[in-house]
Amino acid sequence: MISNLIVTVFVLAGAFFSLLAAIGVIRFPDVYTRMHAATKAPAFGILLFLIASVFFFADLYTTAISLMIVVFIFLTAPVASHIISRVAHLLNTEIWSETSIDELASDTDISGKKSPAELSETDN
Fold first, then answer.
1. Whether pTM exceeds 0.85
2. Torsions phi, psi of 76, nearest 5?
3. Cβ atoms 3, 33 nearer than 8 A
4. How many CB atoms lie within 10 A of CB 85?
């Protein structure tokens, strides 16, 4: 009885965070804030769903698989959001007007620089 209550609480909390992520993806103004909503809240929602599955099935196999999934999600979600933001910035995606700092601008400024192909031609 108590385990069903715990499972229900974790499933509802996971669904709540997944709903927040969906609302954030729809409502946020630019790709960077949407990317934040699409990676942070779902990762926590998935964690809560997996905790619910551990309590529901209550065996070592499910716990081990759930732990591996959590590690995989928490290792890949930040990398994916980083790559998405770099590509969006390189494609000059419009930044929300309320954004005050663009720390990546100095790192990705390629005006006046030679491409790797041009550099190799001058070496020969």
1. no
2. -90, -30
3. no
4. 17
Q: What is the mean pLDDT, run by run of 10 residues, along the chain of 124 residues?
A: 91 95 91 86 92 93 94 91 85 78 66 59 62
* 3-state DSSP of 8-71: HHHHHHHHHHHHHHHHHHHHCCCHHHHHHHHHHHHHHHHHHHHHHHHHHHCCHHHHHHHHHHHH
Q: Please provide residue 58's backbone torsions phi and psi, each rounded to the nearest 5 degrees.
A: 50, 50
* Domain positions in the chain: 2-99
Query: Treating both helix axes as pointing N-terminal to C-terminal, what angle do 2-27 and 31-57 enclose, rounded to 10 degrees?
Result: 170
* Owner of token pair 């732990």: 67
> Token pair of 34, please?
């949407």
